[in-house]
Amino acid sequence: MVHLPQQLSLGVNLNDDATFENFYAPAATHNAMVLQGLRQQVEGSGESFIYLWGAPGCGLTHLLQAACHEAQHQGLSVQYLPLRDLAGYAPDELFTGLDAVDLVCLDCLPAVAGRSDWELAIFNLYNRLRDHGKRLLVAAEQSPRELALTLEDLRSRLQWGLTYQVHSLSDDDKQQALQLRARARGLELSDDVAQYIIQRLPRDTNELFWQLQRLDHASLAEQRKLTIPFVKKVLTI
After folding, report:
1. What mean pLDDT, rounded, does the chain reach?
2. I need a surface site. Which of 35, 102, 208, 216 has the fewest CB within 10 A?
3. Which CATH code is given to the segment(s) 169-233?
4. How far apart are the first and last CA of the chain?
5. What is the pLDDT of residues 156-195, one digit of tens each?
6. Can you name the residues that pair with 76 across neighbouring β-strands?
7. Could you tell me the pLDDT band of residue 203, with boundaries at 50, 70 and 90?
């Protein structure tokens, strides 16, 4: 990621597990189309400005961070900014120099909606990135039309490029996604164990993946396979 001013040492890190390959989107589904659009954006063959929206837990943060990872692998400069965590900063300082970055990702846009300083700064950032031929990926829980914005010109900018709704997964899809993530970690997660986890934990995919990480660490430490008794013991469920 780009170097930010020393006073804005943000401590923003990307999750190593956030990759396009780890995002469960079966072929011919709507989310597979979203994934393809993001890949093309990173490659430079698609739309430069993309707005993602969807319900909490649908994978917006994962997709933004995955785009950053993919861009870095291609030698591009990136900056991921989780606005919910950065709302206390001065936006003009935070955005200084971003027009030189190949891919800028703004996560949690509603966290600063309704604040005139932030809205104007994001509006100006859009214009600068366009003028410099850069790419912007934005995520929010609402569509651009539904955002509580005061600057209508910003709402217009948010609809410049492609707008994708990311669909939430069904319980069956969440099981497949959990097993996909487990395989990426070198874990064997049977159907019975995966169903046991999903039936007893919150359905939020972020929570499910976090608990899988706990199981991974415990399995490695105790040299145990993921069985229902072991999962029950580690997660106390």
Report:
1. 92
2. 216
3. 1.10.8
4. 39
5. 999 989 999 999 999 999 999 999 999 989 999 999 999 9
6. none
7. confident
